[in-house]
DNA sequence: AAACAGGCCTAAA
DNA sequence: TTTAGGCCTGTT
């Protein structure tokens, strides 16, 4: 059972940028222009035109799940203002303009952690294909509209798969990291606790205790799933950007509490330049 | 062929 | 405390 919910498209919201800025790996644009993907074990189809968003999902899921997932409860006009107030400069302005419409999703924490563990030393097409293989092989399947979809496997599913089972999918040295992440999340600190009770700094420290999780993967998880918008993932692209425009030095705290969102604008800007 | 891809671990200064 | 290799696999 699903209907299409029509809601007014807010300012600063663009699906193409949201799903193309490298924060998520499981949504694809179909021939009809709708993005389709699975999150939280549920299917979401969503499209847009200039006026509206069209959200196809099970009844009552919009208010409970997708609204927050898509950051439709956030005012990006105010967020942008706040970034510029803290750090007014031409580069940020240009990046903000180029990346206008990006929203930082609130993704499932466990899936996000695993996805960015998988992202190590991989390019985006390969990350997508590995995440997809993990879901297809070890995730719970469900059917909708005559098609089969797969949820991201839970911690226990990953443990059951085992290191060998994950390596069989060509995850390589990341297989052991996924196992240690599953063990950690089950026995130590639940990721939702980090979201609800930890500061960004505490969350970073906690996540980095997992073998195979360093500052980059931890920051991505904090930013893209745990609502810690001051998290500032530094990857090769951001390194390049900082070298190029800021003389190799950028004080993250000077960007304010939305530093991670500024990071995403810069990342998108630099990647779409060439 | 060799280097690189949205890092991290380990060993060695 | 910082730095160099190595790592699974695939692609160019």
Structural descriptors:
Endonuclease III, domain 1; TATA-Binding Protein; 3 domains; alpha+beta; 13 helices; 7 strands; DNA-binding; 274 residues
Give me the CATH superfamily of the largest domain.
Answer: Hypothetical protein, domain 2
Strand line-up across the major sheet: 1-5-4-3-2
User: What is the N-to-C order of secondary-structure elements (H for helix, E for strand)?
Assistant: EHEEEEHHHHHEEHHHHHHH
Number of domains: 3
Text of the CATH class of the largest domain: Mainly Alpha
Helix content: 40-55%
Q: Given the structure, what is the number of helices?
A: 13
Mean pLDDT, rounded to whole units?
95
Specify Rg, calculated over alpha carbons: 18 Å
Distance between the termini: 44 Å
Q: Which residue ranges are poorly predicted, with pLDDT under 50 across at least 5 consecutive positions?
A: none
Class from helix and strand fractions: alpha+beta
CATH topology of the largest domain: Endonuclease III, domain 1
Let me know the number of strands: 7
Shape: globular
CATH architecture of the largest domain: Orthogonal Bundle
3D structure, described in words:
By secondary structure, the protein is an alpha+beta fold. It has three domains: 4-73, TATA-Binding Protein (2-Layer Sandwich), CATH 3.30.310.260; 74-104 and 228-274; 109-224, Endonuclease III, domain 1 (Orthogonal Bundle). 50% of the residues lie in helices and 12% in strands. The strands form two sheets. Strands 1-5-4-3-2 form a five-stranded antiparallel β-sheet, covered by helices on one side. Strands 6-7 form a two-stranded antiparallel sheet. Strand 3 and strand 4 form a beta hairpin. Helix 4 crosses helix 13 (259-273), helix 5 (109-118) runs antiparallel to helix 8 and helix 7 (155-167) runs antiparallel to helix 8 (174-187). The longest helix is centred in the middle third of the chain and has 15 residues, at 124-138. The radius of gyration is 18 Å and the shape is globular. The chain binds a DNA duplex (13 and 12 nucleotides) through residues 22, 116-117, 119-127, 130, 167, 170-175, 177, 211-217, 220, 233, 235-238, 267, 271.
């Amino acid at each position: 059972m699903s209907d299409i919910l029509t809601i007014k498209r807010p300012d600063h919201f663009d699906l193409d940028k949201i799903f193309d800025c490298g924060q998520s790996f499981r949504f694809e644009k179909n021939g009809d222009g709708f993005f389709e993907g699975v999150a939280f074990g549920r299917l979401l189809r969503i499209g847009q035109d200039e006026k509206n968003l069209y959200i196809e999902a099970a009844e009552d899921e919009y208010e409970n799940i997708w609204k927050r997932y898509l950051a439709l409860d956030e005012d990006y006009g105010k967020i942008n203002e706040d970034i510029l107030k803290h750090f007014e400069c031409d580069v940020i302005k240009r990046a903000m303009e180029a990346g206008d419409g990006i929203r930082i999703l609130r993704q499932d924490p466990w899936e996000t952690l695993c996805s960015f563990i998988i992202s190590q030393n991989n390019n985006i097409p390969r990350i997508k294909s590995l995440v997809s293989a993990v879901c297809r092989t070890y995730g719970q399947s469900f059917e909708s509209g005559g098609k089969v979809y797969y949820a991201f496997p839970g911690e226990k599913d990953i443990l059951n798969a085992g290191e060998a089972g994950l390596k069989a999918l060509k995850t390589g040295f990341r297989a052991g990291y996924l196992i240690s992440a599953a063990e950690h999340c089950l026995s130590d600190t639940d990721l939702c606790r980090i979201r609800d009770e930890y500061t960004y700094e505490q969350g970073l420290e906690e996540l980095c205790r997992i073998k195979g999780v360093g500052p980059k993967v931890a920051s991505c998880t904090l930013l893209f799933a745990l609502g810690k918008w001051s998290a500032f993932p530094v990857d090769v692209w951001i390194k390049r950007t900082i070298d190029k425009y800021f003389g190799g030095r950028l004080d993250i705290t000077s960007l304010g509490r939305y530093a991670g969102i500024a990071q995403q604008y810069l990342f998108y800007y630099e990647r779409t330049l060439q």
